[in-house]
Amino acid sequence: MRLDKWLANSGIGSRKEVKKLLKTGAVTVNGKMEKDPKVQVKPDQDQVMLFDEPVEYREFVYLMMNKPPGVISATEDKQDETVVDLLDDLHKNFDPHPVGRLDKDTEGFLLLTNDGGLSHRLLSPKHHVPKTYFARINGEVTQTDIAAFKEGVTLDDGYKTKPGELVILSAGLESTIELTITEGKFHQVKRMFQSVGKEVVYLKRLSMGALVLDEELELGEYRELTEEELSLLKGE
């Protein structure tokens, strides 16, 4: 890979900052001063030093974001702001992508990573990774709805969902609930409630697998996962 990518992914700075640093002659590759950001280096073979200190290459990044409404779960878009647009230059250097999607108007837990293997495992239907949502519902949610969700409901396209665990927090003209599902069909939570004649007016994802949204993260904020959280996510 390019030397500037190695340095950027190691937390030294943005690509632009790294290029300025290289010009000063502070970086060596295998003991030789290197100023060319385009020079190719091999993480498993070459030794990169900055001010005579070894620079450890980091391949993957794992980010927990509290996604705000109005932002789309994509890496780029010509019209709307994306979750990647909310990242600083250091984390953009890793080219992370959102694991699954949250609707544009949905808030809450979103994982971003460049670890394609982990993304695939978390999104694979055969692994049944649970995702829990909080929602406000226009209409009274009842025990009948709990039973229907437990059996799986039929969506507007004829698809029958896998069982969902519905918990009523409050019931009335507007109800509040938590729903845990193991799928990620398009607008699934909204469509599940539509199937029982009710409308979701607010939706927030609280967790994915064993990971729960950090309550200290304001809307639009994110942080790297801790080692403990990463182990939970990987099921170690």
TrEMBL record:
Organism of derivation: Domibacillus enclensis
Family: Belongs to the pseudouridine synthase RsuA family.
Any single Pfam family the record assigns to this protein: PseudoU_synth_2
The UniProt record lists the keyword RNA-binding: yes
Gene Ontology terms for molecular function: RNA binding; rRNA pseudouridine synthase activity
Sorted UniProt keywords: Isomerase, RNA-binding
Every RNA-binding S4 domain range: 1-59
A single GO cellular-component term on record: cytosol
GO biological process: enzyme-directed rRNA pseudouridine synthesis
The protein's name: Pseudouridine synthase
InterPro entries: PsdUridine_s_RsuA/RluB/E/F_cat, PsdUridine_synth_cat_dom_sf, PsdUridine_synth_RsuA/RluA, PsdUridine_synth_RsuA/RluB/E/F, PsdUridine_synth_RsuA/RluB_CS, RsuA_PseudoU_synthase, S4_RNA-bd, S4_RNA-bd_sf
Lineage: Bacteria, Bacillati, Bacillota, Bacilli, Bacillales
Top-level taxonomic group: Bacteria
Enzyme Commission numbers on file: 5.4.99.-
This protein's record includes keyword Isomerase: yes
